[in-house]
Specification:
Length: 135
């Protein structure tokens, strides 16, 4: 149960931070940042909800690794980042560039990975807690 709660924290923080970063990007493009924030937030919540089925097993797998806690957290971040990149590339490949260009895929991936890094770092206390054996 603790791993599921930690997975939800990482997922939810990533979606929120991704919306914040997208709205900051929109400020420089003369697009209403408030609109972009809520668009990314609402769409991100619904579209990425099934990713919890992939995030939770990665969190559980990171607990079994024979590394230090810091290395487990880094391993988890790396594989979540790879997962995000693969999903963006898959959507781009399926749509054959109709939804957004490869440059936009790169920018979206950078935005999501930055949000993921912030989410993992702010959830580090929970990750350390579930990695520490309870007596």
């Amino acid at each position: 149960m603790k791993t599921l709660l930690t997975s939800v924290k990482i997922w939810l923080k990533t979606v929120v931070f991704n919306a914040v970063l997208a709205s900051l990007w929109a400020i420089g493009r003369d697009v209403p940042a408030f609109f972009i924030f809520f668009l990314f937030l609402i769409i991100g919540l619904f579209v990425s909800l099934p990713l919890l089925m992939l995030i939770n097993p990665l969190v559980k797998l990171s607990l079994r690794l024979p590394y230090s806690i810091a290395a487990r957290v880094a391993w988890l971040f790396f594989f979540l980042a790879v997962l995000a990149i693969l999903i963006y590339l898959l959507v781009w490949a399926i749509g054959q560039g109709e939804f957004y260009s490869l440059k936009d895929t790169y920018l979206l991936s950078c935005c999501t990975i930055s949000a993921l890094l912030i989410a993992v770092l702010t959830t580090r206390k929970s990750l350390i807690k579930i990695n520490t054996p309870q007596e």
